[in-house]
Structure of ROK family transcriptional regulator:
Amino acid sequence: MTPRKTDQREGGNVARREAAAAGPGSRALVVDLIRSAGPISRVELVEQTGLTQPTISNIVRRLIADGVVRETGETVATGGKPRALLVINSQALFGVGMHLGPDTITAVATNARGGTVGHELVARPADHDPSVLADTLIGLYRSLTQGLDLDPHTIAGLTVVGPGPVDVARGRLLGPGEHGEQAGFDLGAALSRALAIPALVDNDATAAAIGEFWGRQVSRDRTFGCLYLGAGIGSGVVLDGALHRGASSNSGEIGHNTVVRDGAPCVCGNRGCLERYASPSVLVDRARATPGLAERLEIAAEDGYGHAFDTLARAAVYGDADASALIEESARWLADAAVTLANLWDLDTLVLAGPGFAVAGSIYVREIRERLADRAFARRLHPVAVDLSSNPRDSAAIGGAALILQGSVAPGHGPQVAMRA
Amino acid sequence: MTPRKTDQREGGNVARREAAAAGPGSRALVVDLIRSAGPISRVELVEQTGLTQPTISNIVRRLIADGVVRETGETVATGGKPRALLVINSQALFGVGMHLGPDTITAVATNARGGTVGHELVARPADHDPSVLADTLIGLYRSLTQGLDLDPHTIAGLTVVGPGPVDVARGRLLGPGEHGEQAGFDLGAALSRALAIPALVDNDATAAAIGEFWGRQVSRDRTFGCLYLGAGIGSGVVLDGALHRGASSNSGEIGHNTVVRDGAPCVCGNRGCLERYASPSVLVDRARATPGLAERLEIAAEDGYGHAFDTLARAAVYGDADASALIEESARWLADAAVTLANLWDLDTLVLAGPGFAVAGSIYVREIRERLADRAFARRLHPVAVDLSSNPRDSAAIGGAALILQGSVAPGHGPQVAMRA
């Protein structure tokens, strides 16, 4: 007569390394629960983690000593002893994230809850020498953190994110948009050495996924996906509170799915890739090829594609027929991609992030919601909630900051980071 | 100067519920290590799990008492105290899996290491009444287990697998190939009640993935995918030794990816799905539409598609030009699908399983290996190893047996199963 219980989510249900009950995995779990469910009491942490009361007390004591967590000062009356409530100590630790766009670099600093405390946008150097890029990033880091008057001891480090492929272990951005010189240059080590902080490189879409997961305080029992529209099209998935990385941290490359069989060759080596039909640069090229459109929208020949795409997207929002046709075409492609992501991961939550969604995000959200409701494979069992990032333009940089914070406040959970000289 | 270590595989690195150090997750971890790395000593288990020596001793003692694990009798000389070696006690526990094909039902019994000890194949009843199907499965279970003279106390239970969608929690197969009557019928409960054993239903491709992972003794640090060609096309992914399930156990549905935009409507609700271009039934229809081919290959009008596809595949292997053209066309579609899987999950290992690969598997393996080597997104960072199941026809049924064994020997790892009346 026992009702059968089926765990719907085996993936990640078992730690690879569980160590002692108070080991790094447990600390990460507690930090993640306080982040997503806080303010929360120790008693609730015991209930939700399955850890013992002494173990929770020990972990919380250490987190408070480390400044990661604080008591709110409020208590919950329960009839018995009042329970103190715990939250992430947002001002004790900061992370820095930088996103390399094709023409610009976005830098953000966030607090330990993922809230943005500082932001800078600079032009990307035209020089492809990687040490020139490194110098720019070093200057940007100093300008940002000194401008905010952040105590260097409170900065967890820096993550630089860009299009994949990435070689996370060797600090290299190998992305198709990056120039050959980058491939042999350990950008992570160069930045870590110059700034004396932990520094990582990572994929922009992956970073955006963990940033959105943190920033939106998503519960770790969701199957959470992020569809990213930047220079290219990518995605990231968070399972049990941690990014799915795969064999080499290059998962999520939905932009390089073949959507037109034997279609045009892509820089990635595949053919007929989604990016060749739906990415902002392709749409801008098409807008320029549409007679009279570029002139009418005042898209200049020298405009970078990011700026030109914003102009096109704005015209679509305002109802220009030619612009709408192009953006809606792109939205239909991305809706197919959303169904692919939902069907392969069995997602219940999807967030749209990246600069491509900054202006005409509502057009994409509408199309993707409708498509998932009509066509997602498991739609008879559960819906897929679709939402737009509250800051799509900065989401990759914010995610970079989240990645370095995650590794710092919850070791064993995010990437393990240490300084390298 | 500390070298930075980046954990390449955060997904699943942290348990949702870690409980005490000797909790269910740790038992699952130890069982999985003994399964994949055994014969293995207690000292090596301490090293590989990060658990303490007393914890490992306790877990192993209980596993031996439960009959799940045994000592080989051999020891390793280390200079100090000789170390006893542990293996899974393959004869102490058996699982039964049944695969519902369109025309046939395959039943297998496996030992605790996933080795097949019994096999039966019967015709599927033409009657669509789900209680008729349940009666057939009950009879098949009794015939199989009594024929093998298995002690009922050593049988962990039964998993019935078929095409998705599945409602694992409510014991229902909702698959597009299943008839409407199935949707309201709790097959799992009916079987559990009649046979007085734990009984599950699950997706065939998902089951095949965990079966291949177990049977091949794959290490849990691989990012392991299985591409399944049965009545439809599916996939499953194993991360850190456990299936990725997603929100409702309906992940991996690569057969319902749109591969031809605005293509023909599919029974799943989507359009232009991969299954409509590359599944065995579609190829058989095409073979029948090719002038003279069905006659030449002696594919009769009344042949079920499974048998007809085997005939077609055999002709392709023997070099019939028309048959080769059809099979190679299907292989090219599946190679695109393999790139999609590799790119989204960043796989390092892919196994091809399912009856569709039973005859012409080598044609598919060749095409998929070449495509991944040429076009996988992360190919500059690592290869994707591609291999054919050693028993593609039975892999879903074997996987069903693995699922029920996993839940039994390693609770907290596989689905939690209990009997229902």
Chain A touches chain B through 104 residues (CB under 8 Å). Residues 1-23, 412-421 of chain A have pLDDT under 50 and may be disordered. The first strand of chain A starts at residue 40 and ends at 41. The longest helix of chain A spans residues 321-345.
